[in-house]
Specification:
The complex is a heterodimer of chains A (287) and B (263).
Chain A lengths: L1 H39 L1 E4 L2 E4 L4 H8 L1 H34 L3 H11 L7 H12 L4 H9 L12 H26 L2 H9 L4 H29 L3 H7 L6 H10 L4 H30 L1
Antiparallel strand pairs in A: 1-2
Chain B lengths: L1 H30 L18 H8 L1 H34 L5 H9 L6 H15 L5 H22 L3 H12 L4 H12 L1 H17 L2 H6 L6 H8 L6 H31 L1
Helix pairs in contact in B: 2-12, 3-6, 3-9, 3-11, 5-6, 6-9, 7-8, 9-12
The chains are: A mainly alpha (287), B mainly alpha (263).
């Protein structure tokens, strides 16, 4: 009896600690998400949102070419960025972990992610300074005399990709480095003793062992990249719209809340699929 | 021997090339914030502090900077307190469905900020709450709470449990244990969570953009500056923000990580 009441008391205390955070997340995350899902099943008449509870918005999404194209543009950009970032970051992390003297490694890492701490909006703007028609690259090339006319680099998909890659190379260098230094050096020594050459050690030992870490970084890249509005808006211009840009367009100019909600759910669907793919792959890898 | 030297050269060349790529935009940003001229692009005409003067004389920018600081510190405090209490509750007591509870608390981390912002915007519109810095703050707590919870929860080990039990045996009440025993022991991770939240909130754009109306935060104000195209003034405010973040990082490094490293 006494024990039970003591347990009750303990439990009540525990709930007291957890409830505020839970309530906050439920009120300002779970419920808003449900509201948004409901609104995606509504329609807009004038400025009013009318609940009709049908999937017309989703059907419209698959019928209207410019909307569907947004998803594909976003997916293409995201995959390109993820792959290029991994290919660039892996050697960098490797060199920092292997070639840079131990006592300088921390410094090298801090330096590698320093521009991370510029404001997100400002970072895209900085790339605009570099890539614009009268920007650093064009002006320098014209000054040296390599080109006569400025190259069109801003307001292209390449500019968006460069801006993204810059950000994610920093992020992935950190995660891959963390993986590389966690690996016991004995594994590689053993492989080398058994006659593997440098490339074989890398391909059969190092790469498989760091792959899970790469996948986690790749997933993070995917989520952050596909949901970003700033970088494609500042660097990509309006020639070719990514999904977040289209969502913002629905909100702003067209004030079409239901469509914006629908597109957001589609965006989330893409992220969820990527998550499932990653999780499955990681599980397969482990067994 | 030759091949090893060759690979060494390649490594260093690669290192330098990538550092160049990583630093190029930052160097351009900071360098041309001192540009004596109307365009922040080469050729560099000479150094002036004029644009910094304009930044600090710009009332809207300064107001936005103040708003940003307020929202960042306020929302991070709330996120830290909520996150710490939840971590304490879930790490120290056996609760039903604790996996589900952890899942709910972490969930916002896996969703794009744009979607969190849209959900909140729909809900506020629906209930009829008007947008202000308060709504921005609410949004920032939503994105930072999972982070604070995860960091603090991860640092709650079993060895602290014994010290807490000792305090309880000596007659400390639950809130005394929490504030005088657990919190001081976990201070490094609490501070880390707090400062990380501050930098995230300080830099966050899309939630602040969609959930604010008249008073805006700094990233939103910078965004509206961008409409005027390339402008050394934008470089100047960008450099100020960069410097501020670096300063914050240094504080974090000196206050938190240095101390943990010593332990």
């Amino acid at each position: 009896m006494a024990a039970a009441s003591l347990e009750d008391q303990e439990n009540r205390k525990a709930w007291g600690f957890v409830t505020p955070a839970l309530l906050w997340t439920i009120c300002f995350f779970v419920i808003p998400f449900i509201v948004m899902t409901a609104i995606s099943l509504a329609t807009r008449t004038g400025r009013e949102i009318v609940m009709v509870w049908n999937f017309d918005n989703y059907i419209t999404f698959f019928e209207k070419a410019h909307l569907l194209k947004g998803l594909f543009v976003s997916l293409e950009i995201t995959f390109t960025v993820t792959i290029i970032s991994i290919l660039l970051a892996y050697p960098l992390a490797w060199i920092i972990a292997e070639r840079v003297p131990q006592k300088w490694q921390r410094m090298a890492l801090i330096l590698a992610v320093l521009p991370f701490w510029t404001s997100y909006v400002v970072r895209s703007y900085s790339w605009l300074l570099v890539l614009a028609k009268n920007g650093v690259i064009n002006n320098t090339l014209i000054w040296i005399g390599v080109i006569a006319e400025p190259l069109e680099m801003a307001s292209t998909r390449s500019a968006t990709i460069i801006g993204f890659v810059h950000f994610f190379v920093m992020l992935l260098t950190l995660t891959i480095y963390a993986n590389l230094v966690q690996m016991p050096p004995n594994y590689r020594r053993a492989a080398a003793d058994l006659g593997a050459n440098g490339f074989q050690v890398f391909w059969h030992i190092v790469l498989p062992l760091t792959l899970p870490g790469i996948m986690v970084g790749a997933f993070l890249t995917f989520v952050l990249c596909i949901g970003d509005y700033i970088t494609p808006q500042i660097l990509g211009g309006n020639n070719e719209l990514a999904l977040p840009q289209i969502i913002m367009l629905q909100l702003g100019r067209r004030a079409d809340f239901p469509m914006a909600a629908t597109l957001s759910i589609v965006l989330m669907g893409a992220v969820t699929l990527a998550y499932i793919a990653c999780a499955r792959w990681l599980k397969m890898e482990r067994t | 021997m030759i091949s090893s030297r060759f690979s060494k050269v390649i490594s260093w060349a690669y290192l330098i090339a990538l550092y160049g790529f990583i630093f190029l935009p930052v160097i351009v940003l900071v360098l041309f914030s001192f540009q004596d001229g109307r365009l922040p692009v080469p050729p560099f005409n000479g150094a002036t502090l004029k644009w910094y003067g304009e930044v600090f004389a710009d009332n809207r920018l300064m107001a936005a900077l103040g708003n940003s600081l307020m929202v960042a510190i306020g929302s991070s405090l709330v996120a830290c307190v909520l996150g710490f209490c939840a971590a304490y509750g879930l790490a120290r007591f056996v609760l039903p469905a604790s996996r589900l509870q952890r899942g709910i608390l972490i969930a916002p981390m896996t969703v794009s900020y744009l979607i969190i912002a849209l959900g909140l915007l729909s809900t506020f519109n629906w209930i009829g709450i008007s947008l202000s810095l308060w709504t921005v703050g609410i949004g920032h707590v939503v994105i930072n709470l999972p982070l604070c919870f995860a960091i603090i929860y991860a640092s709650m080990g079993d060895h602290q449990k014994n010290i807490e039990r000792a305090a309880r045996d000596l007659g400390a009440k639950e809130w005394q244990v929490m504030t005088q025993v657990t919190a001081p022991m976990l201070m490094p991770s609490i501070l880390a969570a707090f400062f990380l939240s501050v930098t995230f909130s300080w830099d966050e754009f899309i939630i602040a953009f969609l959930l604010s109306r008249f008073d805006v935060t700094l990233p939103v104000e910078i965004w509206s500056l961008l409409r005027s195209g390339l402008n050394p003034k934008t470089n100047a405010i960008g450099s100020v923000v960069f410097l501020f973040s670096i300063a914050l990082l240094l504080v974090l490094e000196l206050l938190v990580f240095r101390r943990t490293a010593k332990k």
